[in-house]
Amino acid sequence: MIELIQIKALPTLMMWRQEVLRNVFGVEPSARLLVENRRYYREHIADDTHFAISVKWNGEDAGCGAICLTDELPSPDNPSGKCGYLMNIYVRQPYRQHGIAHTIVKSLVDEAKRRGCGKIYLETTEDGRPVYESAGFGNLPDMMKFYD
Q: What phi and psi, each to the nearest 5 degrees, are found at residue 137?
């Protein structure tokens, strides 16, 4: 049985973020990075521009996900200007292949739509790509990233 829980408590948010940084990014987070993550959560949970969930599978913590909500200049492809950036989507190894990632993504997309987001996007690893493609995500060929 899958249970979704909204996360607002800073210790729980930080526990999941550290696990994602270790297991997805492959880094041990520095003290400075942890301070900046705490600052981000305090600010964006308070102003309701960050929405996070955790997932329990048969009563056990199994995964998490979040949306960073922003505004951009309205455009023909996003008249509202509201954007939802899905992030921190993670399922612990023993709970994979049970539909948990799909449940997380669907829940976050539904929340973004409920909040009026006309653009919903994310970054992915190769392992995550099939989950996102099956949820309706596609590549953004016109985007670039600055590397200094």
A: -80, 150
pTM (predicted TM-score):
0.93
d(Cα 142, Cα 148) in Å, to the nearest integer?
20
* Cα 23 to chain centroid, rounded: 15
Can you tell me the distance from the alpha carbon of 91 to that of 125, in angstroms, rounded to the nearest whole number?
13
Q: What sign does the CA torsion over 49, 110, 64, 140 have? A: negative
Which residue range forms the structural domain that includes residue 46? 2-134
For 76, phi then psi, to 5°, come to -55, -35
Asked whether residue 88 is assigned to any structural domain, the reply reads: yes
Rounded average pLDDT over 86-115 = 96
Provide the number of structural domains found in the chain.
Answer: 1
What's the whole-number mean pLDDT along residues 49-66?
A: 97
What's the token pair of residue 97?
A: 């292949």
Q: What is the DSSP string of 36-94?
A: HHHHHHHHHHHTT-EEEEEEEETTEEEEEEEEEEEE---BTTBTT-EEEEEEEEEE-GG
DSSP state of 95: G
Average pLDDT rounded to a whole number, residues 86-94: 96
